[in-house]
Design goal:
Layout lengths: L2 H37 L3 H5 L3 H4 L11 H13 L3 H14 L3 H14 L7 H4 L6 H9 L7 H6 L2 E3 L5 E3 L7 H32 L3 H11 L6 H11 L5 H8 L13 H24 L6 H7 L4 H12 L1 H15 L4 H6 L7 H11 L3 H28 L5
Antiparallel strand pairs: 1-2
Length: 393
């Protein structure tokens, strides 16, 4: 390699450095953080660091050994931050019911007998059973798949086997299914509206095309919150839509369009419509203008010419737009929160609940990873077909 070639390579690397740095700071680093949080669980280990070594010879099905009892008492005495013990108790209480009262009574007894041996069996007979000890020891690992499994309504039984969670402790898969169903409905609605709109934009020129493009893009430049608030006003019983419907006699009474699925679909369709129209339009404007006149000159009906010629050629744009709309729709949060009801909330609302409502960052990260995995699989399938040329062939 000559000095000139080396200088050219370094110049190219320097030009790419800002992009690499930006991707590392704002994509790779946050993604790695989310993945780490989703599989990390140091809460119990932080509270009971000495119990792990003391339980190496325990059979897991019999009563605890004296070494385990002493280790647990020493760990409780060494905790100088009540929040550390409180966080561990909350986590253990979720795994084993009644742990809050058990640990509260035990911690009080240990602190009242400082410097002396504590008989845990005398403090609470439940310490004779292996279940509370298994709950603590199983949670000592700093890494766990508990949250990833719980994100899809699965967990591990007392033998470590993966099992389906009972209905009263699960529901995430239902929310995921609802999210996918709403996203599919929005995608279908944007195709039904966006394809004719893109055909119209591609068939006109001059100021008419500019006006249609402006009508599509100007709302897109407005804040999502502002657009959602506008739909909140328009969808009310006394809003513009119901006033038009009642005023023209199409309906006798106002339609219920707010705090239900209809309002969510209308608002989300409007906000994702540009992602459908623009890919289709970019494909249509690249097609020869003589295709449809040539089909008509050969005796083809306009609908037949559209079905056999124009639609297959525009399929690549339709699939690209559908991918963009679907991926955007499954992450909507503001629209369902403002115009939807309790049965219309998407998985993003559940993630926000775990992140801000219960401060369970592990569960929020796990749900986010599942959502990211779904999106990645969808994109991989699209890339596979698009790369092989099977779309729009």
């Amino acid at each position: 390699m000559t000095k000139g070639d080396a200088r050219g390579h370094w110049r190219s690397a320097a030009m790419l450095a800002p992009l690499i740095l930006f991707s590392a700071l704002f994509f790779l680093w946050p993604l790695a953080s989310v993945m780490t949080v989703a599989v990390s669980d140091p809460v119990i280990l932080r509270a009971f660091p000495g119990l792990g070594a003391a339980s190496e010879d325990w059979s897991r099905n019999g009563p605890p050994t004296p070494a385990m009892q002493r280790a647990l008492v020493d760990d409780i005495r060494s905790i100088d931050d009540a929040q550390v013990l409180g966080a561990a108790v909350r986590r253990l209480n979720a795994a084993h019911a009644g742990f809050r009262s058990l640990m509260g009574r035990t911690a009080a007894a240990v602190r009242s007998q400082d410097g002396t041996d504590v008989d845990l069996f005398a403090v609470d007979a439940r310490w004779r059973e292996p279940e509370p000890w298994r709950a603590i020891i199983d949670g000592l690992s700093p890494y766990t798949d508990e949250f990833l499994l719980a994100a899809i309504d699965y967990g591990r039984d007392e033998n470590g086997a993966i099992t389906r969670l009972p209905p009263d402790k699960s529901g995430n898969r239902y929310v995921f299914a609802r999210t996918i169903w709403i996203a599919l409905q929005v995608t279908a609605a944007t195709i039904a509206i966006g394809l004719p709109y893109a055909l119209l934009m591609a068939s006109v020129t001059g100021w008419t095309r500019h006006a249609l493009m402006a009508a599509l893009l100007v709302p897109m430049w407005t804040s999502v919150l502002v657009r959602t608030a506008a739909w909140f006003i328009m969808l009310q019983d006394q809003g513009l839509i119901n006033e038009v419907l009642v005023g023209t006699g199409l309906t006798r009474d106002p339609l219920t369009l707010l705090f239900n699925r209809a309002g969510v679909l209308i608002s989300m369709t409007h906000q994702t419509l540009p992602y459908m129209v623009l890919p289709i339009f970019s494909v249509l404007v690249s097609l020869p203008k003589s295709l449809m006149p040539a089909a008509a000159s050969l005796g083809a009906h306009p609908l037949r010419a559209f079905w056999r010629i124009l639609l297959p050629l525009s399929l690549r744009g339709i699939v690209s737009g559908a991918l963009l709309v679907f991926m955007t729709s499954i992450g909507f949060y503001i629209v369902p929160a403002l115009v939807g009801g309790p049965r219309d909330q998407l998985i993003s609302s559940l993630i926000a609940h775990y992140a801000t409502g219960t401060a369970n960052w592990q569960m929020a990260s796990a749900l986010g990873l599942v959502l990211l995995g779904m999106t990645g699989c969808l994109y991989a399938v699209y890339s596979r077909f698009a790369g092989s040329g099977q779309i729009g062939r």
